[in-house]
Amino acid sequence: RRHTRPPCTRTATSACVRPMQMLLSSPVLAILGSSVAAAFTAQPTSVAGFTATYTAATPIVAQSSPAARQALFASIPARHGHVSALAASSGEPLRICILGASGYTGAELSRLLLRHPHAKIVSMTSERYAGSPMSKVFPQFACASSLPVMTKLEEVDWSAIDMAFCCLPHATTQQVVLGIPEDIRIVDLSADFRLSDVATYEEWYGTHYAPELQPGAVYGLTELYRDEVRGARLVANPGCYPTAAQLALDPLLRAKAILADDIIIDAKSGTSGAGRAPKEATLFCEVADGIHAYAVGAHRHAPEIEQGLARASGSPVTINFTPHLMPMSRGIFESIYVKLAEGQTPADLEAILREKYADEPFVTVLSDGSVPQTRHVRGSNHCIISVKGDRLPGRAIVMSVIDNLFKGASGQAIQNMNVMFGYPEDTAIDGVGVFP
């Protein structure tokens, strides 16, 4: 192989086992399933078998001190940068593991990575469908004979992996990342590492099981934080609503062209954003022929949007954000109402956005007075933005559309992977939208 990890020689002790046992509380065990829980809460002899089986570098969780884990995690990009260089230059495909492959984001990742000339999916996990091919869950993969059979998490051979995509439920990835060998780079599609402030995360999602790793996680909105993504070991893939909102508003706030204390986001989403697990709210009869608001005043993406906009503004930002569920499978449409700064016009906003995204392959700013539509970005990694003046003086409407499964999840995850490993950024995700 182009790089081979030496066998782990660390002796398994209670220090190796106890952190996982503390991290995996009963709610987390319920999410992961008994088989995964058993793998992470085994006796020391089993932990020794775990490291020997994978012949991998010592997992971060083996460091008994939180401070030591944080220091180790922060130093990973510098110590393992050669892995990315070798992967990009060796001619061998990047070896990919998809954790949680049987959900919508996992399926979209699989579909796109099959087109990637520098990547090969060598491992896919699903606790529910372990032992089954992907085509059993998604029949469209019947022709994808190169995909491996799905396995349980504890069966992954980490010594054969270069890159992992985590498509696991919220509050699950934190524990899993702690157990992944340190020279494997990760893009996490859950919310587990998106919020930099641990207290804010716990207010909205519950206990943070790896707070010492949070400072080392990079927020992966590629167009805005490309340089940080390039050197990251762990990238927190943004949420769908935050992606559309920040692409539209970040340049305007940085230019001081709009007021930071008067932003209203009226958002619409397709049902796939709620995931694949059966829910009454996403049953056909509950969604068809209508539209309804949900999580009014209390949606988890609000603090993520505010975090990003505050970073752009340089001061705290509070938004009014209301999401709505639409009778469609894919798509995000955000109508964003803003107040112009003194002397600014809607044309100025458009000019700022055009300049910012002039060289970006996946962001288009309309200039002919037209408005974007979700069907124009369906099945693509593109974001289309438009600015219109309001009838009220001093106000404007900024519209932003994306495909929530593509640019809002799996497509952006691959975009981040391409940046991390030095591949052309649009590799495997450069197609136009599917319409009709």
Automatic annotation (TrEMBL):
CDD domains: AGPR_1_C, AGPR_1_N. Residues 1-38 form the signal peptide. Pathway: Amino-acid biosynthesis; L-arginine biosynthesis; N(2)-acetyl-L-ornithine from L-glutamate: step 3/4. Keywords: Amino-acid biosynthesis, Arginine biosynthesis, NADP, Oxidoreductase, Signal. Its EC number is 1.2.1.38. SUPFAM superfamilies: Glyceraldehyde-3-phosphate dehydrogenase-like, C-terminal domain, NAD(P)-binding Rossmann-fold domains. The active site is at C240. It is an enzyme of class 1 (oxidoreductase). Residues 95-232 form the Semialdehyde dehydrogenase NAD-binding domain. One of its GO terms (biological process) is L-arginine biosynthetic process. PROSITE patterns: ARGC. GO terms for molecular function: N-acetyl-gamma-glutamyl-phosphate reductase activity; NAD binding; NADP+ binding. It catalyses: N-acetyl-L-glutamate 5-semialdehyde + phosphate + NADP(+) = N-acetyl-L-glutamyl 5-phosphate + NADPH + H(+). This is N-acetyl-gamma-glutamyl-phosphate reductase. It comes from Chrysotila carterae.
